[in-house]
């Protein structure tokens, strides 16, 4: 397992004054790339509305989480609720690794890249926010690039 080491990025005092801030704050940032593997694990559709793809349908999953070398580093678990058939779902899921968890929640597109807010974490990821960019790879895996921020 690899540990994230955050690098400090200092806000420029002049920019802080322009934004109406009284002082600059240090922010730690880092990028983590993972692969959600939907080829195995649990992937259960729940058809709640009209038969077929309809608003309110759910998809529940618990699948392997891989690193860039495609080695298992944890699990990718959560659910999506269909909001616009064939196009969008509202999702929440948690990436669980040996050194903590990262939870994301937001709108995911059926195709293309989606940007999902990071809403928190535990362990080494306690206090993080940021954004997860998820892109389908065409083989039932998804590349997830997490840009993590932590205020110090």
Calculate the mean pLDDT score and round it. 86
Question: What structural class do you assign from the helix and strand content?
Answer: mainly beta
The total of helices stands at: 1
Query: Roughly how many Å is the radius of gyration?
Result: 17 Å
- Per CATH, the class reads Mainly Beta
The biggest beta sheet reads: 8 strands, antiparallel, barrel
Number of strands: 10
Q: What does the model show?
A:
This protein has 152 residues and is mainly β. It has one domain: AOC barrel-like (Beta Barrel). 4% of the residues lie in helices and 59% in strands. A hairpin with a 4-residue loop joins β9 and β10 (141-151). The chain is globular, with a radius of gyration of 17 Å.
Q: Keywords for this structure?
A:
152 residues; single chain; 1 helix; 8-stranded antiparallel β-barrel
Give a quick summary of the entry:
The chain is mostly beta strands. It has one helix at residues 13-18, and strands at 7-10, 26-37, 42-46, 58-66, 72-84, 88-97, 100-109, 114-121, 129-136, 141-151.
Protein topology:
Layout lengths: L6 E4 L2 H6 L7 E12 L4 E5 L11 E9 L5 E13 L3 E10 L2 E10 L4 E8 L7 E8 L4 E11 L1
Antiparallel strand pairs: 1-2, 2-4, 2-10, 3-4, 4-5, 5-6, 6-7, 7-8, 8-9, 9-10
